[in-house]
């Protein structure tokens, strides 16, 4: 089944060339089924790139998905054309009276700034609070995960001695949880961050469970006991050359940066990067969309209740 996205979004042509089934609005409206409604709060500077990465993964599903795109009104993006924002994006004031089956909050390049000093922090907190009443399942990525863990549970982030940068092996702690259905015993995830959250802080919060981690890169996946909020510290959505672009950028600017771990054959930046995370990334987003959104969200979104009141699907299967 397709993803439904706005007519003329730049990602459409890219996805069609990759054989991702993307349906435009005109065709979707002729179908007599209810698509899942997903809101993407895009905090990344290169918004078109991030849109394409996430749509590519969410389009690899038998479910029809309809997207709205959101950006913060309290910060003007500098790396995305204004006409793109005007045409495809909305502010929180424009979406706050709607309800959604799912929401994705991306990472952002502000992790070394204290949360309260981020320009759009107050607005983001308002959106995160709103999501608990108006979104069935929220998927937080990297800094978005750190921000939500801090806002909802008071879990701090810590500076790392050097950037966590590369492709790292991970294992699943609770294998019966459906988020990791079909995963190998060891799977790989890209990370690119200067900060971390720690196991000892998360374990103090009884509402949270650690689903996956890595000996090298630490905590990867955390879920709340209501199955309504996922916190993912890595960037499974990254393209094959995303880390290369970050590495080349920092080298060109004379910034201290190590060669990304487990990325280039023989650790040689002159070679083509080795992709080893794509199958796990597709499974991650497909499992979230199916088991944590589609299988639990009410058909009538007006019946959506607060995440504190509704436990989603009970039992060990989720």
TrEMBL record:
Substrate binds at residues 163, 192, 249. Keywords: Acyltransferase, Amino-acid biosynthesis, Cytoplasm, Methionine biosynthesis, Transferase. The keyword Disulfide bond does not apply. The keyword RNA-binding does not apply. Pathway: Amino-acid biosynthesis; L-methionine biosynthesis via de novo pathway; O-acetyl-L-homoserine from L-homoserine: step 1/1. The record marks 192 as: Important for substrate specificity. InterPro entries: Class_I_gatase-like, HST_MetA, MetA_family. Its EC number is 2.3.1.31. GO terms for biological process: L-methionine biosynthetic process from homoserine via O-succinyl-L-homoserine and cystathionine. It is found in: Cytoplasm. Belongs to the MetA family. This is Homoserine O-acetyltransferase. It comes from Sporomusa ovata. The gene is metAA.
């Amino acid at each position: 089944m397709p993803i439904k996205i706005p007519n003329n979004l730049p990602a459409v042509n890219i996805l069609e060339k990759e054989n991702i089934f993307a349906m435009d609005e005109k065709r979707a409206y002729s179908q007599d089924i209810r698509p899942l409604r997903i809101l993407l709060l895009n905090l990344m500077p290169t918004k078109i790139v991030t849109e394409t990465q996430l749509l590519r993964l969410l389009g690899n599903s038998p479910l029809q998905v309809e997207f709205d795109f959101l950006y913060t009104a309290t910060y003007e993006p500098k790396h995305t054309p204004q006409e793109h924002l005007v045409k495809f994006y909305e502010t929180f004031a424009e979406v706050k009276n709607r309800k959604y089956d799912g929401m994705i909050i991306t990472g952002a390049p502000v992790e070394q700034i204290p949360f309260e000093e981020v320009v759009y922090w107050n607005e983001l907190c308002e959106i995160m609070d709103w999501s608990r009443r108006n979104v069935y399942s929220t998927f937080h990525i990297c800094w978005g995960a750190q921000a939500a863990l801090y806002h909802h549970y008071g879990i701090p982030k810590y500076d790392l001695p050097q950037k966590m940068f590369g492709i790292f092996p991970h294992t699943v702690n609770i294998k019966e949880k459906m988020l990791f259905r079909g995963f190998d015993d060891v799977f790989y995830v890209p990370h690119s961050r200067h900060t971390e959250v720690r196991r000892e802080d998360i374990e103090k919060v009884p509402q949270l469970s650690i689903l996956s981690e890595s000996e090298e890169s630490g905590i990867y996946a955390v879920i709340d006991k209501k199955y309504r909020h996922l916190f993912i510290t890595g960037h499974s959505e990254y393209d094959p050359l995303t880390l290369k672009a970050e590495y080349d950028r920092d080298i060109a600017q004379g910034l201290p940066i190590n060669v990304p771990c487990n990325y280039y054959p023989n650790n040689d930046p002159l070679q083509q990067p080795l992709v080893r995370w794509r199958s796990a990334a597709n499974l991650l987003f497909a499992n979230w969309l199916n088991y944590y959104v589609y299988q639990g969200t009410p058909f009538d979104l007006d019946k959506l209740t607060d995440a504190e009141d509704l436990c989603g699907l009970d039992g060990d299967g989720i």
